[in-house]
Amino acid sequence: MGYLEVDCPEMAVRCLCFARLGRFCARYHDAVPSFSIRQYGDPVLRQRVPEVDEIDGRLRQLADDMTETMYDAPGVGLAAPQIGVQKRLFVYDTNDGLGARTIVNPVISEASGEWTFEEGCLSVPGLSWEIVRPKDIHLTGWDLEGNEISIDATEYEARVFQHEVDHLDGVLLVERLDPDQRREAKRILRSMDFSSSGSDPDGLRRLSNGEKRRASDSDREGPAKL
Predict the structure, then answer these.
(1) Is residue 93 within 8 Å of residue 101, measured between CB atoms?
(2) CA-CA distances (angstroms) from residue 10 to 33, 34, 65?
């Protein structure tokens, strides 16, 4: 059996962070041609996923497929629940020259400071808000070789980690909005149709091509779509 633990949608929209069509079909003969990103309103996004018990070949294959399609999107990060996979891991690449990495069973044990950043989400396409989160965090977890990871992250990298860990805990970015933002967001979301994503629904191509701005009042990095 493959690594899917919940059924995929019957009709797959343009995949944002998942396996390329051909490779996916070859490996998983009983699956639909490609994953669909789970979007706002899907109950799977509200579930806290269990920890990974074993790092094995199937988990590494899952991470490889997620990474390949994250680049294909292109994207910055992807948590397994966003494709309906109940595994506690995420992949990411912050364009720091180190390439794609996977963190299994991540834990944020320390957080300090504040950093305001325009943040979006692949599961809430086309929308972004300025959200205040801790500026600095300490994250631990495991890599795909079973080695323990310990990272002191700040600003953009810290933001990516916090966003992806939220997904693993069943939390969407709309829950990080202040009361006024949340009321406006819910009004917009109720009127939206999430079945169509377009060619670049979240500005990820622009973001991945380096068109970024510093996160300040006058010169702020573009919204992260995670």
Answers:
(1) yes
(2) 10, 10, 20
Adjacent-strand bridge partners of 141: 149
Domain that holds residue 124: 21-225
On the question of pLDDT at 4 being above 60, the answer is: no
DSSP state of 191: H
CATH code of residue 155: 3.90.45.10
CA dihedral 15, 140, 155, 100 (to 10 degrees): -40
Burial-class residue 43 by CB neighbours within 10 Å (0-12, 13-18, 19+): exposed
Token pair recorded at residue 208: 């991945």
Q: Which residues are catalytic?
A: 164
Q: Highest mean pLDDT range out of 1-5, 40-44, 114-118?
A: 114-118
Count of domains forming the chain: 1
Q: Tell me how far apart the alpha carbons of residues 218 and 79 are, in angstroms, rounded to a whole number.
A: 31
Strand partners, 108: 139
